[in-house]
Amino acid sequence: MQQQVFPTSAVPAAHTGCGALIPNANTAIRICKKPLKRTITLPPLQQNPSKSSLCLCDASGNGPNGANPYGALLQASDGNFYGTTDAGGSTTDAGAGTAFRLTLTDDLTTLAVFTGPNGLRPESALTQGIDGNFYGTTSEGTSNDGTLFRLTPSGTLTTLTFTGVGADTTTNLLRDSNGNLYGATTNEDTSGKGFIFELTPSGSLIDLISIPAPTPGTSQSASSLIMASDGSLYGTTSAGGSAGGGVVYKLGFTPQAITFANIPNHTLGDAPFTIVATASSGLPVSFQVSRPASVNGSTVTLAGAGDVTIMASQSGDGTYAAATTVAQSFTVTNVTAQTITFPQIPSHTYGDASFAAGASAGSGLPVSYQIISGPATVSGNLITLTGAATVKITASQVGNGTYAAATPVTQTFTVVPASQTINFPAISPQHSSEGSFTVAATASSDLPVSYEVDSGPATVSGNTVTLTGAGTVKLKAYQHGNTNYTAAISVTQSFSVIGTP
Questions:
Q1: pLDDT by residue for the chain (501 residues), tens digit each?
Q2: Distance of alpha carbon 286 from alpha carbon 151, whole angstroms
Q3: C-beta separation of 339 from 267 below 8 A
Q4: Where are the beta strands (DSSP E) in 152-194?
Q5: Are 325 and 215 in contact (CB under 8 A)?
Q6: For residues 392 and 203, what is the distance between their CA atoms, to the nearest angstrom?
Q7: CB atoms near residue 470 (< 10 Å)
Q8: Are 151 and 167 in contact (CB under 8 A)?
Q9: d(CA 99, CA 274)
């Protein structure tokens, strides 16, 4: 933390104002001791009878709605005004302060009353957090400690008490672009130091650094903070420094960045999964998630279908500035997972009748098929064999609005060649003078039949037998088969050839 100290010796006697920062080319900035006296003449106020004012106190001087509002009003995102009072909230005494809402139609509502355990005398303005709630500080509490509180628009008050914080915690809170809230307190411990704190969107309270202690015997107040464009925090104290004249301090941070890995789309019903994000500082990254999902640490659990956005943040510490929040979004599909059951297909023989593939989906939706390779076709769920070889077939189900697409399942089966037979009619006796004749053997496969003369006075070419003399002829018919049919068992016919008388 860097600081500029303002010695009282540098302040001219004529300029002894309290808390004012006065620019001067020779002495930079000075903090004065007593109020400057200056008369300013203002033009008369123009009265407008259509305008009205609201009194927080009743006729007795008590303030059931609050009294003595020191902090400025906040116009919130709902268009209404919100503020605090330093006293009031009771019909019987001055009270300890309130938080209130004022609508544009002048309806005043007391949202919360400060009673001691939840803080006393809020003197700062409210700040609206990124969660839509309001945050502020009180100057006192039950142990003379100031408090930090959260107030919902409906009036629910939640208090965080600073341990050891003295009175006059009156500074406004500063919100950065990531939703972190920063503030300064007056006193922290017996040394009289205040401290700068940070409240993260997740509710973590971080003590960033102590503000220099004042010179013994003097008082100290910390101003509201401002944030420079480089992320540094600036503030002032009314006492402290080498001569007790106050300081301007700077809290600078080392920048850090978040790396957040992409998240793929998911299906409702998927198991919880882990997300990965890291900060360049090495500090732990926290996550916030929009519905329909929840996150615990780095584990995401899906709770419904829709678009999910997860914010990764790192709020920094006394060394590192808060990192820019990084978001990753993904879609959860409102479908149920399904699986395909596809029994193994047994081996078949070429020529077998068409048969059902037999796959089913757990969803009950129809399964479709595709022949990946091999001699077969598929129509609907019927497989027709077109040859003998290995067939590979895939079953798939693309899903619908209720079920996700199933993982395809592939089965492989074998088609073996078919057997065949030869029909070779008997050959009647022949006369050698007839010369030649044809034979007509057939194969059940419809493949062409071949012939050869095993013995006897004849030759054969194609299916034509030529007689070469008298005697007994043995003629064999055969079919060797192909990829779809095995070789047929040969068939032999014998016949007599009668010679010429």
A1: 444 443 433 333 333 333 333 333 333 333 333 343 445 555 554 555 555 555 655 444 456 778 888 889 999 999 999 999 988 887 555 578 899 999 998 889 999 998 877 888 898 899 999 999 999 988 887 665 678 899 999 999 998 766 444 445 678 899 988 888 998 877 654 555 677 888 888 888 777 776 655 544 444 656 788 988 877 888 888 777 777 777 788 888 888 999 999 999 988 888 999 999 999 999 999 999 987 899 999 999 998 888 999 999 998 877 888 899 999 999 988 777 899 999 999 999 999 999 999 999 999 999 999 999 999 999 999 999 999 999 999 999 998 877 888 999 999 999 999 999 999 999 999 999 989 999 999 999 999 999 999 999 999 999 999 999 999 999 999 999 999 999 999 999 999 999 876
A2: 24
A3: no
A4: 157-161, 174-175, 181-184
A5: no
A6: 59
A7: 15
A8: no
A9: 42
Of the candidates 262, 256, 267, the residue with the CA atom closest to the CA atom of residue 293: 267
Q: How far apart are CA 58 and CA 37, in angstroms?
A: 34
Residue 211 CA to residue 380 CA, distance in Å, equals 80
Residues 413/439, Cβ–Cβ less than 8 Å: no
DSSP state of 99: E
- In whole angstroms, give the CA distance from residue 181 to residue 127: 9
Q: Give Cα separations from 440 to 131, 251, 420, 462, 495 (angstroms).
A: 96, 110, 17, 10, 15
CA distance 135 to 142: 19
Residue 14 region by backbone torsions, left for phi larger than 0, else alpha for psi between -120 and 50, else beta:
alpha
User: Is the pTM above the cut of 0.90?
Assistant: no
- Expressed in angstroms, the distance from the first to the final Cα of the chain is 140
